[in-house]
Amino acid sequence: MMLLVLGLSFTAFTALSLAMEKHQQELHGKSAASPARRTQWRVLGWVLLTVAFALCVVDHGWAMGPVLWLGALTLGGIVLAFALYPYRPKWIAPLAIALPVVGLVAALL
Amino acid sequence: MDRSPATASPRLSTFFANPRWGVLSRSLAAIFGGYALASMTTVFCALALPGARGQAVLTGMLLAILVAACAALWAFATRSALRAWVGILAPTLLMAGISRLLGAWA
Amino acid sequence: MKNGFRQSMAWLHTWTGLLVGWLLLLIFMAGTASYYREEISRWMRPELPRSAVSTDQAAQRAADYLLANAPQAESWFVTLPQPRNPAMQMFWRLPAELADPSKGRRGAFGDATLDPNTGTELKARETRGGDFFYRLHFDLHYIPVLWARYLVGFCAMFMLVAIITGVITHKKIFKDFFTFRKDKGLRSWLDFHNVSAVMALPYHAMITYTGIVTLMIMYLPWGVNVAYGTDQDAFYAEAFGGLPEVTAPAEGKAAPLPLRQLLDSARTHWHGTEVAGFSVANPGAANAVIDIRQRDGKRLSIDTPALRFDMVTGALLQETPPSGGATATRGVLYGLHLARFADWGLRALFFLSGLIGCLMVASGVVLWAVKERPKHAKSGRTGFGLRLVDALNIGAVAGLPIAFAAYFWGNRLLPLGLAERSNAEANVFFYAWGASLLAAFIWPKRMMWAWQLYIGAAAFALIPVVNALTTHAHLGVTLFNGDWALAGFDVSMIAFGAMLALCGWRMQRWTPPLSAAEKKKRAAAAAATKAPADAVEAEASA
């Protein structure tokens, strides 16, 4: 469950970063997404954040769930901002897809 | 104006016009005034909050920490050092007065 | 202030952060290490075997030991082995006639730490283990505990103000949420400081506020005085719930029920939650009672639910009453600070957040120096303030890791039978830190940064080697046995060494950024060489 939450948090933050023009320019330069597209990313990001939160609460209750959620967000955000965007931007998209899938598989096993 | 060292006199007004005094004053207001305000908050809450005594005392402490932080912000955000002191000491004295009426330090 | 609100908050942020930043680094690093204090303590006592007995067997061994060694005791307090801490600790209260007056209040108690596998006293090297870091982060060292706590509380208030003013000052907190522009000098340092602060902002605010809460009764006793006068005990009884103290003296003698049965009653009442320990009042008497405490992990609050049973009849006498709102709030805040409830995954996240906090403080103090330095370039020599900050930065940011590593080296290398061994280990920490600070003050330059970072890197990375050379609890053994706590420690040491080496390498290779004028010159020169080359190319393809 923890891996799934971590994966979803990472992907949620990736989506939210893609909703910003600045990061679109960073990744795609001239073919940066349109404002309409960016809104879609923003919605997806918030949806995934909510799903991650719900999973935390279902698994750990209302007391510890939110604590775990915040910790997962911190990890996802730090990896994205300090490691991926500056040094390995091409890894962002593949990881954003792979991590939740791996997490889901791990949670179901 | 005669500016020779022999006849120049130390001008207290220019000495105290240095902005460093304002900073010192605000810092003292933030630290010592802030602590006084926080302490008075705990006393006030202990006496004025409804419910069990022990709970009121604890609530006062939890709030006082935040009050102290706000006092520090006020001390440096407000227009002058004087306002910094007034803004911190006035509520302190007000709470002290009400606490006295509620039975503190009888 | 004449400046705007944001500017005055920015000023306040700089100074609340800078003035106490170095002490805060010590507090943050030691506090972060404390998340793993049980594991550190285990690593520092490699002679300690893992607990192979069940909780019930351990409890029985504790009771047997106490009956044999403290037969006159008026009360017992036992902490049973936990998954993260295999040792069993207990203390007992002696009757007045047996107390040792020369030790003051502590003379009225006896204590022992047992190996639950054998029920005999633990034979391991004398060390404070991870508890050294735990105590260090609020009691500091070498100064009276009271002074230390006031000082730490003062720093914590500064930190709280720094956090609030930081948020107020950070205009683009959402826009720059993921922004870290590397290799851009001051810009990069600021981005790093901002992102490390914002990504763990709930944590930083929580840990700072809750830290002050843990000692708030000491800092703000005035409300207690005014509401309770001289009857302070009434405050503690009313504010903190828990089971009331047993005041009735021992009466008669009776055989108690088997411990296992009593512990099982507690487990059943709690729907299976395990026990953390128990206390007995008037052991062996007909009115003996046992208080059984619940194990951590199920609740945020520090307040431990407990059940009181009659030891002879097994009847449930009392349960910890529900707490008032403020008591419960304080309990949760205190609990959040200590994070005793955290399992391995959540604990790792707390530790990570603590490390990010250290990086936030470190980047803050370094950032100030980076920003300040160009102002001194014109005069050619660094002013006193900047030189002081440079020296403290090196001594704290690069020197503290050396001290932490040295503490672990000391644990492995100091003679096992050394008198006052725990104090000696603590002294090693401070000798190392002192040496680093001294060196930093003598030569507060970039190469000193690099050297100290490299020394720290080597000091950490070689710990598993020192471990292997001096004990049988090294990676070769612990990985094989699946002892993840001990193996994880050694692996973490290597990881920290690698990180410090990377920082040292970057420091060593750093070149000053080009000035705008210099950049223009180089761009013009590049264009000049490119034009003829383009012309040649155009001709060649024509």
From TrEMBL, chain B:
Annotated keywords: Membrane, Transmembrane, Transmembrane helix
Transmembrane segments: 28-49, 56-76, 82-102
Pfam family, one: DUF3649
Recorded superkingdom: Bacteria
Protein name: DUF3649 domain-containing protein
Source organism of the structure: Stenotrophomonas lactitubi
